[in-house]
Amino acid sequence: MPESASDAPLLFERLGHLAVITLNRPARGNALTSSMAERLLECYLEIRVNPDIRCTVITGAGDRHFCTGADLSEVAQSGPMGGGYGPLSQEVRWSPRQNDIWKPTVCAVNGSAVGGGLHFVVDSDVIVAAETAQFLDTHTEVGMVGAIENVGLARRLPLGTALRMTLQGRSFRLTAQRAYQLGLVDELTGPGQALDTALQIAEAISKNSPNAVSLSMRAVWSALEMPYSQAMEYGYALLRMQWAHPDFAEGPRAFLERRQPVWAEPGAARPGADQPGR
Q: For residues 135-163, b (16+ Cβ closer than 10 Å) or e, as one string?
């Protein structure tokens, strides 16, 4: 990954079909600020609307912290970031999932992921962590409610582990090795190798049909919110949508011709394609 001399608190880079977001406040634990939130929204808009971007990698600068959550000095001075009293869909926009982005995200956890930093972890599609990383939640320790990220933790961890993280504060630290054993982490790497591994995974994903990848993501994530039979029906509707997309013909043709497929832009379906509802 090319180095950047920028001192901006959040970096946005393009590597081929990949977008790379780096939380860039290593001296402050890559803690989140309101200005970073505004810049993130700009990045997510670019990711969502640019068909050339097929996958996103999110990481933190340095090797000590991934993200230590909200910058408490700003919270102490100004209160909740963004006001905090509007609807969830307007106020909480940290992760790609919270911005309705249906392109894959690979999270490279290079160090400690704390509190609000867990937004990026629980909402990513693939989580890579260095073996020196750790996961903890300090909301209740500083008088806040552990809720949004913690609901995500309860989806990806045993309930007792999610509750210990939520209720114990920094006295309970989930190591990367234990997180890997429990399924929160999908790939464990040596120190300093999380980003390179995440980029390799993202690059492999970006070679597949963007439209098929996006619809497949919807099928899997939606299954977490639906009864089994309903999720199967919704998945089948998404599957049928792909039949009308040029990639459905291009994939088998490229395989038979022993060449790399040339994928169409996502959503380039023929008229009359199924449009499943939720």
A: bbbbbeeeebebebbbebbbebbeeebbb
Query: Please, which residues have CB within 8 angstroms of residue 69's CB and are 6 or more apart in sequence?
Result: 31, 32, 114, 115, 116, 117, 118, 138
Predicted confidence band at 196 (pLDDT cuts at 50, 70, 90)? very high
In percent, the amount of the chain with pLDDT more than 90 equals 83
Q: What is the full DSSP assignment across 219-237?
A: HHHHTTTS-HHHHHHHHHH
Rg for the chain (alpha carbons), in Å? 19
How would you classify the pairing of strands 134-136 and 174-175? antiparallel
Structural domains of the chain, ranges and CATH numbers in brackets: 10-206 (3.90.226.10), 208-278 (1.10.12.10)
pTM (predicted TM-score): 0.91
